[in-house]
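Problem: given the chain below (408 residues), write out its structure.
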Amino acid sequence: MSYSRPGARNALALTLALSLLAGCGMFSNKKDKELEPKELERFEPSLSIKRLWSVKLGKDSDFLRVALRPASDGTRIYAASADGNVVAIDPENGSRLWRTDLKLDLTAGPGVGEDSVAVMAADGLLIVLEAATGVERWRADIDGESLAYPLIDDDLVIVQTIDNRLRAVSVFDGTPRWTVEQSTPALTLRGSATPVQIGSSVIAGFDNGRLVSVDTGSGDLDWESMLSPPSGRSDLERLSDIDGRLAVIGQDIYAAGYQGSLAAVAAESGQVLWQREISTYVGVAADWNNLYTTNEQGEVIALTRRTGAESWRQDALLRRWPTLPVPFYTTVVSGDFEGYLHFFSNVDGELVGRTRLGKKAISSDPLVVANRLYVQSDMGVLAAYAVEEPRRRRDAPDIAEDGAEEDT
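Solution.
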């Protein structure tokens, strides 16, 4: 997380760098001890995690957070590296189906739609590739940096930029279709909430604490809801960005803001159904029963989806810059700044498993497709994981499973 203000971005990035060095123990003052990341504790794992394959995508990401996360269309895994490589991968064995070097610094993506893959470059270029071959179809200047994954909706590519604009262009040639703009506070977090689609509407969260619904055909505003009203006297105290991921279950939207609240919102009207005071910059993940997030201190929190009541809270990742906890198997999994993946029981938050992808941070959310977990690290590596099921002893034939292959 870093802050941005026109004309002061570099100074603020430097301030963040110094604060992170302090948090990582680079300074030895006693006062800094309480700011250091929590040390990992030994435990007896009850879940066996197996790495199936890993592949190098490109060079390491730089210091500033970018929105590069694997995506899937159900048959392939797509991923992009910070130095401009976009690849399609066979999810079964990790073999590369195609690779396209765009020779650009990438900041967001890929977004995947029917036969299209979209990524954003640091200079504001939106690039769309053919999903089957990786051949570039077109590139267009969006006139703004994006740190949100592009959304492909039928004949549109929808992009949210850090200047608080939501833009839609034609998926065929990049022709502009519509733009929605919100006011930009004097000081914001570096990051954006990735838009999500519900029916014929796209839902987006902005740095002014507002959640909006836009008709994808016309660009007209369906509704607008103030999720995190700014409060306080200083610009820093008034930070209320809606960042990270939005979750959708049925007709309910779940969103969260920094120094604000986590809320359930009705998709058809924008009415806030309930909200809880939780400050986060990673957003919200959901399954049918619970919501999951981490607060600004790194505590992993589970809430009941229907009412927002807290189910459990886990402090094992305090100040370790955890990613959004993502539901996987019977757990939620979160990466940290040292390249570890932590698996917590979705019932009570108990730590049940841990594995390490590498020494570089994991700053993008893990991706779950069926029974596989895909994780991209800041060192430019993508890996696939699965839970190893223990073999069961069979004293008698199991008729229900007769003829089926047993997991190994």
